[in-house]
């Protein structure tokens, strides 16, 4: 069965767990604080952005999706 995934929220949870500053993400993505916060509210993200989040937080967010594949 398909599980509803809200990737922005999952990134936020990992973000808080690592206690990263918002400025670190702003510098990494070269965007504003508001834009970073908006990503946390997104149900889905472009794969390029998800790859960048995976690199920044050193966590494979793609595995969240692959674990829910029905083969």
List the helices and strands and how they pair.
Elements: H1 7-18, H2 22-29, H3 33-40, H4 47-57, H5 62-66
Count helical runs. Answer: 5
Helical content class:
55-70%
Percent of residues in β-strands: under 5%
Whole-number tally of structural domains: 1
Note the main sheet.
none
Give the helix/strand class: mainly alpha
- How would the global form be characterised? globular
What's the β-strand tally?
A: 0
Distance between the termini: 11 Å
Mind explaining what this structure looks like?
The chain has helices spanning 7-18, 22-29, 33-40, 47-57, 62-66. The chain is an all-alpha fold. It is built from 5 helices and no strands. Helices cover 62% and strands 0% of the residues. The radius of gyration is 12 Å and the shape is globular. The chain has one domain (7-66). The protein starts with 6 loop residues before the first helix and ends in a 5-residue tail after the last helix.
